[in-house]
# Entry
Amino acid sequence: MSERKSDKFVRDLQKTGLNYEESMIYFELVQKGPKGDYASVIASTLKMKRTTMLSKLNRLIQKRCARIDGNPLAPRGVRRFVAISPAEYITKIVHQKRQELLELEKLEKTASKQLERMFQQSIEYGQEDLDPFLAPFLGPLLEQGWKLVEQVVELSKISHGFDGYDCTLLPPKAQLIKDCGFLVFKFNYPVESDETTINFITDLLLRRSSSEILQKDIGVKDIQISKTTIDFFDRTFPSLKMEFLFAPQAGFQELTKSIIVPIHDKIFFLWGEDYSIVEQMIRAVFRVEKILVD
# Structure
């Protein structure tokens, strides 16, 4: 038998739960047929130590794909090891996997929702977990029923010229898009009227948003992001128009709204399912920054 075909059988046997060495040994036993062979002979053929071979053979017996032929209490040197019939062994494995699948399907129906709820609750940030910089902005939202599920802080003034705060929130009244984003870029100089810095951050957000969305397993096939503007409180702000393609026949759909808000030494990027969600975040920002709105 060619080595290539032999290797294929060994790889196939690993799918039953045997490791590489166990698969080699079982395959060697299969080729010995119902008569089997001695551990010393198999060890010599596979270039393994006899003591190691005995340990591996005992492991195969525990996995019920090999047995000792004759008296199991006979001296080690005269015991013959025999493979369990491949058809019997593989059929047993198939039956076992089917039973495991049935148990997993039962678990999916009975426990997965409860476990997921526990998981989601465990990753929520409370008031005490908020970064001191973010607390004034997000604290009031959490009091209103919003949930913070991700908080990433990158203090990197030297390399990038700003500190970054990236948060994912769950607003209580979201319908289709359950999460929303609250990002802050904090500089050590005023940026509110700095068009160069604002354009730099806008371009950064455009590239980053496209890459991150396409990496998520949410069914998006393609995304188109373009620069635009949005009006809030009688003021015009930069914005990113994000259009998602889930299937070619469906066409691109705009499912979120976003706004870029430069204030003093900070640039905020806020996005959510609709204008009402974005507006709540803007009001939280303006309250802290002492900007009066109607």
